[in-house]
Amino acid sequence: MIAGELRRFLRDHSAVRVSRSMRDTAYKVLQVKEKLSLQNGKEPDVETIAKALDIPRQEVVFALEAICDPVSLYEPVYSDAGESVTVMDQIGDTRNTDEHWLEQIALADAVRRLTAREKRILALRFYDGRTQMEVAKAVGISQAQVSRLEKNAIRQIKKNITAQ
């Protein structure tokens, strides 16, 4: 009874929640997988299991993934003479580094300090890809003024980023 209560508590208070229907499907998938393995002498593929249960292939995959235990990012996957390689080492992201996040924060802060007019000009130029002439018409100023405001805004952004 105590073990059952512990399982219930862990199930109900887990960070990852799997629906009951998904767990039921996973249970059926495991039963069919075991039955087909015994019959054929080899492990069945996902397609065979899906046909046996008359459910979409994708549902079989989702059900099997839903019942997998989560793995810690610090779980060792290889160990050699005291040096161990963890899951985190294997899934490193070179694009979203701490430096990248800091640069993004600094850039957002520097842009936030611009005037509304400067922000609009930069957005039209660099997000919408418009020419200085098109921006000038949209904002109601001359192309020369757009050029000057754009240069000043970029200079201000660079100054604010290096000051941080």
Description:
- This protein has two domains: 16-70, Winged helix-like DNA-binding domain superfamily/Winged helix DNA-binding domain (Arc Repressor Mutant, subunit A), CATH 1.10.10.10; 98-163, Winged helix-like DNA-binding domain superfamily/Winged helix DNA-binding domain (Arc Repressor Mutant, subunit A).
- The mean pLDDT is 86.
- It has helices at 2-12, 20-40, 46-53, 57-66, 87-90, 98-112, 116-127, 132-139, 143-163, and strands spanning 76-80, 83-86.
- With 164 residues, it is mainly alpha-helical.
- A hairpin with a 2-residue loop joins strand 1 (76-80) and strand 2 (83-86).
- Strands 1-2 form a two-stranded antiparallel sheet.
- The longest helix is centred in the first third of the chain and has 21 residues, at 20-40.
- It is built from nine helices and two strands.
Specify Rg, calculated over alpha carbons: 29 Å
Unreliable segments of 5+ consecutive residues: none
Shape: elongated
How many domains in all? 2
The helix fraction, in percent, is 55-70%
CATH topology of the largest domain: Arc Repressor Mutant, subunit A
The structural class is mainly alpha
User: Would you identify the CATH architecture of the largest domain?
Assistant: Orthogonal Bundle
Strand order of the largest sheet: 1-2
Give the CATH class of the largest domain.
Answer: Mainly Alpha
Q: End-to-end distance, in Å?
A: 59 Å
- Strand-residue fraction? 5-15%
Tally of helical runs: 9
Q: CATH superfamily assignment of the largest domain?
A: Winged helix-like DNA-binding domain superfamily/Winged helix DNA-binding domain
Task: Give, in order, the helices and strands.
Answer: HHHHEEHHHHH
| Residue-averaged pLDDT | 86
Give a short account of the largest sheet. Answer: 2 strands, antiparallel
Count of beta strands: 2
